[in-house]
Amino acid sequence: MKTISLVSFSLALVLNAFGQRALKAEAPRVSPSVESLLADDIEWLLATYKMLHAAPELSHREEKTAQFFAGELRKFGYEVTERLGKYENPAWNGYGVVGIMRNGAGPTVLIRTDLDALPVEEKTGLPYASKVKTRNDAGVEVGVMHACGHDIHMTSMLGTAKMLAQLKSSWSGTLIVLGQPAEETIDGARAVLRDGLYTKFPQPDFAIALHDNADLEAGKVGYIPGFALASGTAVDIKIRGLGGHGSKPEATKDPIVLAAQVVMALQTIISRENSPLDPAVVTVGSIHGGTRYNIIPDEVNLQLTVRTYKEEVRQRILTSIERITKGTALAAGIPEDRAPIVKVSETEVTAATYNDPKLVERLDVAFKKALGDENVVPVAPIMGSEDFGYLSLDQKIPSVVFWLGAVDPVKVKQSKENGTRLPSLHSPLFEPLPEPTLRTGVKAMTAAVLELMQKK
């Protein structure tokens, strides 16, 4: 297993800065004080980003990443609490980090970043590419990569935290910086809430997060009022049959044939049972069964993901999945004692993310002042999932997650002209353009906080 020291790697990056600089962002449109502070910090931001990118850690294992994040917040003058998070699995440690800066009377604002990486082997060829390998929970060696850009998120958040500490005379209230673990496994937000995020620390009046975007040009941000990301629910289905010899199928109840019928039948939930005005997805992402060419197995296992915006739609789809699965088995002559087992996960599930429209409207104005009208664009909601929505306490706390463009504008233009697709999030080839992305992330998040915490 290859290990990387965050401290030593950071020092090396600061010393040599990798011998190159990223593309410069456009002319500043924010106040000179913000822009001058950002100019002073850009080399540090780039070094921090590249260090984090090269040293990723999987969900539930973000120990060194969390230590680094906490240490930086302490340098900026924040009250820091580490190891926040209680999981249902007692073997997992909580590596959440909370930094608080109290600055007089005013609103409480929480800004959140995620800390974890993905089991993806990087193939970008970058000089700071991750070479980290580890063993997953099944004991299989896997590569580890920040293929969803959480390194961009962390660096932008640290830049914002430092900026706001230096601009204390410009705002008032209580600022909470949350380093959240285990977003990729969608159980980190619930873990920090379960461990007292809103009882040990002040409950915020507003919550904001950013997420990098693999289709949007670096230098821009995107906003979505209302539903922005879907709920995600994992479902396991065990199709049980009666196995036997492949040459004598009449003496068996073939679960592979039944599984194929179930997979196709489940698609009718979206096409014939769900309103086209209510976006939803049912995807079978995994199917496993059998051991040899000539053996009909006893069972086949399916893994599904269900995506919806509305909770009532989610519940209706889950009910339909069980009805269709068991009904198809009954029609195939499966005995009652061998009926399929449908299990909805209680851990790999997350609520939809809803952006408070009034808060979006306020931030839209702030973003345009900071970045220019042409760099703030409306974007469509997606069926991807995030667990940030839990921090709103079922929309009781106004919250917004906005998109941060992360792609070289030249590549975006070429992609549109050629009809080719850019590497997506979670791709081993995902490669954010660091400098303009980080500049925009820090300016946008700083502008959002200053808008909400401006002095009266």
Question: What pattern of helices and strands is seen along the backbone?
Answer: HHHEEEEEHEHEEEEEHEEEHEEHEEHH
Unreliable sequence segments: 9-29
Residues in helix, %? 25-40%
Strand order of the main beta sheet, please?
1-2-6-3-7-18-8-17
Indicate the overall shape: elongated
CATH superfamily of the largest domain: Zn peptidases
Task: Determine the number of helices (DSSP H or I, runs of at least 4 residues).
Answer: 10
- Sheet/helix structural class: alpha+beta
Strand content: 15-25%
CATH secondary-structure class of the largest domain: Alpha Beta
Q: What is the number of beta strands?
A: 18
Query: In the CATH hierarchy, what is the architecture of the largest domain at level 2?
Result: 3-Layer(aba) Sandwich
Task: Describe the protein in words.
The chain has 456 residues and is α+β, with helices and mostly antiparallel strands. It has two domains: 6-230 and 352-452, Aminopeptidase (3-Layer(aba) Sandwich); 233-350, Alpha-Beta Plaits (2-Layer Sandwich), CATH 3.30.70.360. The chain contains ten helices and 18 strands. Strands 1-2-6-3-7-18-8-17 form an eight-stranded mixed β-sheet, sandwiched between helices. The longest helix is centred in the first third of the chain and has 23 residues, at 32-54. The radius of gyration is 24 Å and the shape is elongated.
